[in-house]
């Protein structure tokens, strides 16, 4: 079958789904994406909880393959090394690579929006508020429920690809097939996002070209720069024990 006659149904328009759809449309496939969330370009919702992420060479290669690296580079801040903040207040800088090499801080939502914009430009259709409830691998059909209207529909396609993230409905459906081995384990750490706002003059309060880390043995805080002068920090902290999120049981703590 000619690729252009093949209908691909993608579940999830996150980072993987929206990038993959760019590759598929480029190769002539007819792509429809079904995404559980509303359109973040219209509703200004955050793309998951982590506001920015570190993009490395592997990520750039993925973007390059569909000609999107320039669009993303405009909104990415190079971080040439990690800045370690010790408990005694001393700071230690460790370069990630050679001169000119860096990983990049990029807005997760911004990146997702660029990928979705380009998906649509290249001919893919994205349906929002559509939660996949089941994939039937024998019949090659996927079922969806609209989270706003409650409408249910079942669709068929030549190829169904699940790119619906950590709690993938597609992967869950695979569990009902024969001889599919699968295991899932949970980390003992959770995370909490914090913000370092810009200085009064709008500049970054820490070196913006570094990924800042406060390592503290069993837990750590990291901070990545944003274009608006702020830093998004993530505190990776144990769920249980001491210290832990379980102990932070009052507003003051
Ligand atoms: C705190 C944190 C920090 C991270 N930092 C980095 C980093 O710095 N650099 C990096 O490279 N990676 C980082 N990651 C990993 C990165 O977030 C994942 O690798 C990436 O998001 C995976 O993309 P995805 O498209 O598979 O999943 P997601 O980005 O989660 O997208 C899944 C999409 O599917 C949709 N969906 C879910 N269920 C359904 C359903 N039933 N039906 C329809 N749609 C559905 C969701 O709404 C979402 O849009 C981080 C992850 C976390 C949690």
Keywords:
globular; FAD/NAD(P)-binding domain; alpha/beta; 6 helices; binds flavin-adenine dinucleotide; 253 residues; single chain; 6-stranded mixed beta sheet; D-Amino Acid Oxidase, Chain A, domain 2
How much of the polypeptide forms β-strand, as a percent range? 25-35%
Widest β-sheet, arrangement of strands: 6-5-14-15-16-13
Shape designation: globular
Largest sheet: 6 strands, mixed
Tally of strands: 16
Which secondary-structure class do the elements indicate? alpha/beta
CATH architecture of the largest domain: 3-Layer(bba) Sandwich
Number of helices in the DSSP assignment: 6
Enumerate the distinct ligands: flavin-adenine dinucleotide
**Secondary-structure element pattern, one letter each:** EHEHEHHEEEEHEEEEEHEEEE
Helicity range of the residues? 10-25%
* CATH class assignment of the largest domain: Alpha Beta
Return residue spans where pLDDT drops below 50 for at least 5 consecutive residues: none
Overall mean pLDDT stands at: 93
The radius of gyration computed from the alpha-carbon positions, rounded to a whole number of angstroms, is: 21 Å
Number of domains: 2
At the third CATH level, what is the topology name of the largest domain?
FAD/NAD(P)-binding domain
So what's the oligomer here? single chain
Straight-line N-to-C gap: 62 Å
CATH superfamily of the largest domain: FAD/NAD(P)-binding domain
